[in-house]
């Protein structure tokens, strides 16, 4: 909790009344304008405690009209009633009068964002824009002047355009963005970084118009409103201009890029429009108004919602107190409001994590009203300002500066002192039970109490009050500049640079404790028992022993910077009762609170810590099997930082501190709600052990001290928690006219119910708790073995809930004699989660909150649901079931309905019975005594089950007509038929059974007809009911053979057999008997009867359903039957099913029946036990031969392959002509003969046009290892190249490949291979010569001709080189050379050599045309065949 110290300003002229005030945005300088009838007007500047800056006094004959500080510099602009505008500089007091532009009262003053522009305006509508330099000095005359002819009211500058993010720009430049690199270039305009200043602005006039002025000073109308404009705001997040008029009408406008504005919302803020209306605008889009009413109205424009904040009379406000003005501090999130009774109300925004949806729902609840600050008078103006968050208040007579001060409080030796007001304390003496007020004549900045005295100080003066009597008397008062004071017995301890002074209550210095320069200046003091701990500003600590006359050093100076990394400064130093441990709170170098508590062990000279960020200590003993407990405790206290710390005043092991969540450092004071109190044991042997952790109870503000068996807290006035109030036998007695009790206490967990125990019991309980935390059960039980009190044992059992020691709890329950609780805990041991077992113990001890927390922590929502139900917390049980425990949702609804029924809330119980889906039984049971309500419910329910129940009830009451009505609504046709039969309405019953087809109704009606010997109708309705056995029985008994057949076919096989036997016994309708035997599955019986009675049609029908699973003898008999009747295909099928495959194949061959692939698949059984392997192969070959004869080559191939005869399989496949399958089969079989067969087959095809077949020939001859055949193929290829294409080059390549292949072949023909190779070699030589001649012709034609002439002389030239090709070469040469006569001679010579061949095949067409033209050589008619030359060759690759 904080209090506010008020400092009235030291005004030079007290007679003048303040009219205006304004704070500088960062500096603690307040400008106040005042006026008086005699002195005119003046403006003065004041510092943070109200000191007047005498050098900055400005006065004029007329009052000041407006004040506005420069946004950065200490420059104040003053506007006067006369129209004069002055710049005042602090602290020099320099005044700069702006050139005379205004002749009327100054109406507005506004600075731009960084203060480079100043806008001034007056009541006549004159507006001027001025330019200032970086120091806030005026530069020349005005830049722009406009005259709007109407009084100006408001002005706001447009928001600054966002600057360039240099980090992002640098990353883009490194990644290669050329535009980003250009922006860094010095060639262009200089790079503008950071937000740019907006120089355009909007200005409003009294006639409701708003004008826009751009950066060049050009003005244009923007919008118009009805009435004078009071305020202008700009909602930057949404780009919206907000306008508020004098009639409190709010309008929102969107601004168009091309100019102009569009209104999209208008609302009336308040119906009350008085002269004192204050409107403020916050950065988070809140519009806050005070209209002279007892409420503050808030509009959240971002979320489109509004609410009001009211004053609370219980906090000291008066009825009828009106709010005149408001001001908001964004840094502290505090809204201040000044009232007509001289009070300042403050609402603080609660710091708690909330989702956006919950914020919308509870926005008003976030504002917490604080205790008011009284300044008297009528508060007319408020304003927060400066970086110190000071509040200036105008109470019509003077101005007060309020600064926040954290409430001072102290506890010592059973006395608590808590600050109420700047000069008032509340003293509570727990030993005597008295509460006394203490009113001082100074602002209290600190207090320290003992059992006999109260010491207060303000940093400049110290006063000591005697507490031994009934009144507080001053025993000493003296000036002292110490900002901190400690008290021990009759000594006061104060600080000054480099030393601690020990004084008497009257201020006399008795002793000096000096510190070296390296040790620093003492800034922190703490006394516990007879030890004084001192902390310095250089992070050194010392401990002194105060038990003697003079203070003696208990330990040397310790530099904590050597042990704590990133240490900034010490925040708190505390010493334990034995002087063995010093605890420390520190801040880091960056100023943030450290999330660790440090402990300095004086004897061991070591520093340990407890880290509240992780929730674990640096050292400590972990008891066995405590991992789950430890993890739970770490989760409970992790993510926090320590706020305050205390040692127990008598128990040296016990330490306590307050913690708050990390991130709430700004509000981590007594006002924070999420504060936990953590208690630790600290010893040398066992380190740091967590003893307890709990959330600070509501109504309490801050931890004050720990003194077993109590924690002591401060609390708000009137909010003392009954749970933590003093015992009833020792109430706190407040003195007359004293303030309310400001301190409260709460017993430790281990001492609930033992607050008044003697010291022995208290020590035993502490030892038990300590050893329980250590895990030493022997010592724990030893410490309490002499205790006989059941209350103590119960308290220890409660302790076991926190420590999760069920083994100890069982002993405690035994000593308590609580058998029921012991049994429940034993049964709970079946639960797998430790938390669930401990929760049962908590329930038995009445610790319901702990049980709830434990169930939630282990996610046992089923047990939590049952717990809520047992506690009659049905709403929470329903919420748990609906969200987390949906498997028990209907059970929860049912139990809640039973509870409501027991409470007499039947209407609500009915709803939950319906939700649990048990209403069909439970609601009639519940309402059975109220038939009227029950009938009404049945009528409204529209549920068939309920209709049926109600009909049965009516039937039991002999109300048959209404029973029939509700049976019909329930669609219970059996009951309808039953009742009609009972009433004798047989036709009606028959109609219902026929129309609905309900089997149960039909069966009941059939039984009725049978009982009345109406057999026909009985059979009919038995059939409708599908009770065919009953219908068959009646037909047999009554000779209804015609109906018997149809009924038997509809019934099951047993009934069919029974009907068939009936027909067989009677010897009539034997065809029906055969059919029924067949349908019933007795095929052998059906066939036997069919053969015996020669039922051929039935026999054929049965045979169609026979398969390989049938009896082989039966199949053979049927096949003989079909053979006799020439139905060979069916006979084959039956023979195959009977596995008589040879007979089946023979039948196919004899009668030329086509063997299908399915039939062949069935007959090609290789694992038959009836056939040997040789017989099986013979059968397969026989099937394949049959397939071959039928032309089923693929099937034949398959069967041959199954028989293992791949040679014949390949032959069958060759007959099919499927080249792809032939190639595949050859590759899969991998047999030489098959490869050669495939190659021979492909060679028989037109392989010249299909290169794929050509490659297959070469591949298969190669794989078949037949080089002689491959060589022969290459020879054939070469001859084809010569004969068809005259391509001797490719022919030569082919012959070379042939030679290679023949060289590899084995000679098995007694020398024929060598002769063949010699001939082949001769051919190769001749062809090589001819190829050489052709190639030489282009280089040396004469030599080529000579060689060709010589080649013609070679013996056996043809067929290696055709003579026609050689002569054709010579004739073409001579024609090209123009020697046509010689060419003609060669032509005649060729004709003589080849008289029977066409010579035109060997000679080019060009040569023939030339000979015809010159020599008259005739062309044969029709001989225009295109002769392929070398240019037209078909490229083929013959090599592999």
**N-to-C CA distance:** 101 Å
Taking the sheet with the most strands, its summary is: 5 strands, antiparallel
Low-confidence stretches: 186-195, 353-361, 621-625, 721-737, 1421-1440
Which class best fits the helix and strand makeup?
alpha+beta
Shape: extended
Total beta strands = 62
Mean pLDDT: 79
**Helical element count?**
46
Oligomer: single chain
Strand content of the residues, in percent? 25-35%
From the alpha carbons, calculate the radius of gyration and give it in angstroms. Answer: 58 Å
Helix content: 25-40%
Task: Report a brief summary of the structure.
The protein has 1440 residues and is α+β, with helices and mostly antiparallel strands. The longest helix is centred in the C-terminal third of the chain and has 26 residues, at 1312-1337.
């Amino acid at each position: 909790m904080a209090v506010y110290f008020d400092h009235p300003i030291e005004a030079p002229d007290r007679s003048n009344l303040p009219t205006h005030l304004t704070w500088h945005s960062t500096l603690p300088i307040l400008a106040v304008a005042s006026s008086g009838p005699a002195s005119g007007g003046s403006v003065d500047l004041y510092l943070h405690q109200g000191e007047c800056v005498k050098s900055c006094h400005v006065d004029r004959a007329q009052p000041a009209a407006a004040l506005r500080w420069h946004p950065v510099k200490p420059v104040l602009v003053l506007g006067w009633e006369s129209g004069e505008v002055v710049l005042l500089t602090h602290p020099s007091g320099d005044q700069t009068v702006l050139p005379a532009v205004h002749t009327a009262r100054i109406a507005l003053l506004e600075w731009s964002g960084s203060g480079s522009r100043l806008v001034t305006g007056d009541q006549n509508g004159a507006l001027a824009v001025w330019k200032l330099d970086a120091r806030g000095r005026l530069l020349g005359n005005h830049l722009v002047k406009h005259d709007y002819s109407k009084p100006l009211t408001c002005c706001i500058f447009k928001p600054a355009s966002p600057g360039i993010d240099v980090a992002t720009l640098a990353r883009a430049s490194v990644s290669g963005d050329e535009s980003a690199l250009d922006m860094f270039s010095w060639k262009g305009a200089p790079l503008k970084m950071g937000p740019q200043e907006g120089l355009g602005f909007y200005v409003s006039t009294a006639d409701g118009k708003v004008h826009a002025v751009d950066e060049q000073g050009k003005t244009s109308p923007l919008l118009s409103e009805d009435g004078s404009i009071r305020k202008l705001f700009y909602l930057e997040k949404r780009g919206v201009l907000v306008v508020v008029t004098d009639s409190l009408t709010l309008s929102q406008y969107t601004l168009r890029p091309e100019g102009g504005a569009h209104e999209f919302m208008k609302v009336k803020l308040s119906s009350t429009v008085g002269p004192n209306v204050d409107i403020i605008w916050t950065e988070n889009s809140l519009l806050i108004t005070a209209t002279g009413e007892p409420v503050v109205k808030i509009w959240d424009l971002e979320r489109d919602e509004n609410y009001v904040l009211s004053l609370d009379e219980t906090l000291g406000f008066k009825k009828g107190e009106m709010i005149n003005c408001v001001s908001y501090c964004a840094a502290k999130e505090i809204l201040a409001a000044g009232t007509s009774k001289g009070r300042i109300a403050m609402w603080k925004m609660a710091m708690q994590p909330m989702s956006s949806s919950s914020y919308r729902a509870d926005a008003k609840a976030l504002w917490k009203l604080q205790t008011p600050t009284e300044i008297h008078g009528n508060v007319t103006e408020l304003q927060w300002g400066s970086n110190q968050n000071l509040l200036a208040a105008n109470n019509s007579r003077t101005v007060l500066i309020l600064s926040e001060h954290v409430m001072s409080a102290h506890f010592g030796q059973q006395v608590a002192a808590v600050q109420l007001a700047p000069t008032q304390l509340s003293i509570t003496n727990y030993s005597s039970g008295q509460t006394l007020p203490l009113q001082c004549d100074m602002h209290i900045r600190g207090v320290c109490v003992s059992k006999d005295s109260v010491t207060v100080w303000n940093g400049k003066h110290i006063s000591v009050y005697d507490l031994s009597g009934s009144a507080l008397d001053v025993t000493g008062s003296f000036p002292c500049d110490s900002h901190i004071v400690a008290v021990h017995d009759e000594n006061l301890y104060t600080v000054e640079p480099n030393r601690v002074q020990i004084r008497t209550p009257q201020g006399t210095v008795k002793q000096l404790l000096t510190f070296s320069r390296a040790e620093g200046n003492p800034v922190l003091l703490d006394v516990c028992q007879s030890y004084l701990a001192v902390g310095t500003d250089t992070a050194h600590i010392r401990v002194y022993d105060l038990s003697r006359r003079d203070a003696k050093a208990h330990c040397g100076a310790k530099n904590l910077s050597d042990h704590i990394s990133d240490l900034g400064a010490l925040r708190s130093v505390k010493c334990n009762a034995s002087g063995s441990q010093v605890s420390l709170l520190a801040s880091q170098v960056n100023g943030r609170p450290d999330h660790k508590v440090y402990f300095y062990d004086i004897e061991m000279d070591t520093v340990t810590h407890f880290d509240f960020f992780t929730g674990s200590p640096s050292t400590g003993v972990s008891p066995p099997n405590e991992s789950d407990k430890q993890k739970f405790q770490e989760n409970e206290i992790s993510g926090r930082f320590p706020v305050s710390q205390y040692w127990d005043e008598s128990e040296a092991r016990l330490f306590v501190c307050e913690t708050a969540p990390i991130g709430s450092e700004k509000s981590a004071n007594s006002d924070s709600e999420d504060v936990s109190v953590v208690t630790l044991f600290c010893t040398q042997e066992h380190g740091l052990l967590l003893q307890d952790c709990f959330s600070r109870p509501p109504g309490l503000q801050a931890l004050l001290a720990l003194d077993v068996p109590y924690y002591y807290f401060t609390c708000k006035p009137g909010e003392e928690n009954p749970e933590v109030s003093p015992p009833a036998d020792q109430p706190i007695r407040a003195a007359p006219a004293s303030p309310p009790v400001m301190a409260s206490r709460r017993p430790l967990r281990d001492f609930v119910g033992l607050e008044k125990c003697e010291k022995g019991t208290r020590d035993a309980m502490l030892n038990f708790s300590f050893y329980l935390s250590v895990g030493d059960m022997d010592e724990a039980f030893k410490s309490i073995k002499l205790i006989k009190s059941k209350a103590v044992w119960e308290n220890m059992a409660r302790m076991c809930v926190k420590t999760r020691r069920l083994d100890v709890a069982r002993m405690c329950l035994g000593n308590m004699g609580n058998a029921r609780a012991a049994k429940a805990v034993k049964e709970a041991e079946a639960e797998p989660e430790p938390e669930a077992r401990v929760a049962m113990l908590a329930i038995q001890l009445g610790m319901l909150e702990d049980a709830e927390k434990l169930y939630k922590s282990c996610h046992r929502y089923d047990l939590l649901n049952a717990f809520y139900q047992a506690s009659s917390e049905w709403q929470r049980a329903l919420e748990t079931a609906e969200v987390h425990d949906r498997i028990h949702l209907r059970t929860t609804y049912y139990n809640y309905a039973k509870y409501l029924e027991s409470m007499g809330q039947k209407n609500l119980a009915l709803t939950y019975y319906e939700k649990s889906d048990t209403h069909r039984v439970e609601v009639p049971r519940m309402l059975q005594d109220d038939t009227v309500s029950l009938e009404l419910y049945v009528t409204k329910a529209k549920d068939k089950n309920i209709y049926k129940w109600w009909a049965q009830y009516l039937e039991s009451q002999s109300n048959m007509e209404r029973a029939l009505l509700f049976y019909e609504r329930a669609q219970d046709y059996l009951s309808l038929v039953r009742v009609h039969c009972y009433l004798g309405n047989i036709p009606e019953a028959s109609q219902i059974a026929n129309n609905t087809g309900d089997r149960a109704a039909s069966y009941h009606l059939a039984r009725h007809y049978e009982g009345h010997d109406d057999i026909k109708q009985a059979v009919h309705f038995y059939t409708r009911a599908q009770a065919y056995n009953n219908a068959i029985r009646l037909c047999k008994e009554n000779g209804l053979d015609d109906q018997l057949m149809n009924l038997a076919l509809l019934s099951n096989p047993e009934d069919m057999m029974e009907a068939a036997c009936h027909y067989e016994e009677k010897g009539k309708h034997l065809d029906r008997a055969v059919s029924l035997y067949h349908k019933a599955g007795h095929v052998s019986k059906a066939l036997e009867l069919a053969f015996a009675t020669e039922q051929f049609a039935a026999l054929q029908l049965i045979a169609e359903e026979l398969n390989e699973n049938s009896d082989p003898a039966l199949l053979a008999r049927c096949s003989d039957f079909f053979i006799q009747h020439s139905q060979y295909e069916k006979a084959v099928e039956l023979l195959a099913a009977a596995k008589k495959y040879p007979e089946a194949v023979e039948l196919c061959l004899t009668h030329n029946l086509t063997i299908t692939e399915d039939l062949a698949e069935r007959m090609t059984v290789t694992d038959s036990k009836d056939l040997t392997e040789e017989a099986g192969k013979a059968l397969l070959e026989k099937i394949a031969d049959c397939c071959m004869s039928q032309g089923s080559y693929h099937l034949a191939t398959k069967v041959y392959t199954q028989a293992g005869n791949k040679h014949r399989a390949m032959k069958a496949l060759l007959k099919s002509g499927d080249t792809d399958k032939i190639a595949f089969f050859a590759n899969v079989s991998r047999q030489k003969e098959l490869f050669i067969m495939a190659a021979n087959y492909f060679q028989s095809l037109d392989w010249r046009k299909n290169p794929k077949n050509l490659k297959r020939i070469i591949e298969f001859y190669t794989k078949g290892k037949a080089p002689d055949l491959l060589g022969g193929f290459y020879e054939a290829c070469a001859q084809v190249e010569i004969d068809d294409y005259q391509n001797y080059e490719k022919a030569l390549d082919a012959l070379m490949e042939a030679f290679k292949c023949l060289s590899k072949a084995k000679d098995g023909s007694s020398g024929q291979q060598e002769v063949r190779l010699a001939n082949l070699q001769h051919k190769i030589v001749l062809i090589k010569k001819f190829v050489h001649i052709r190639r030489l012709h282009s280089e040396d034609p004469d030599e080529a001709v000579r060689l060709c002439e010589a080649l013609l002389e070679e013996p056996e030239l043809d067929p290696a080189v055709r003579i026609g090709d050689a002569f054709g070469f010579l004739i073409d040469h001579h024609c090209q050379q123009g020697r046509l006569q010689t060419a003609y001679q060669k032509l005649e010579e060729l004709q003589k050599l080849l008289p029977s061949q066409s010579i035109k095949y060997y000679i080019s067409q060009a040569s023939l045309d030339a000979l015809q033209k010159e020599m008259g050589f005739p062309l044969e008619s029709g001989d225009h065949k295109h002769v392929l030359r070398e240019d037209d060759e078909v490229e083929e690759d013959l090599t592999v």
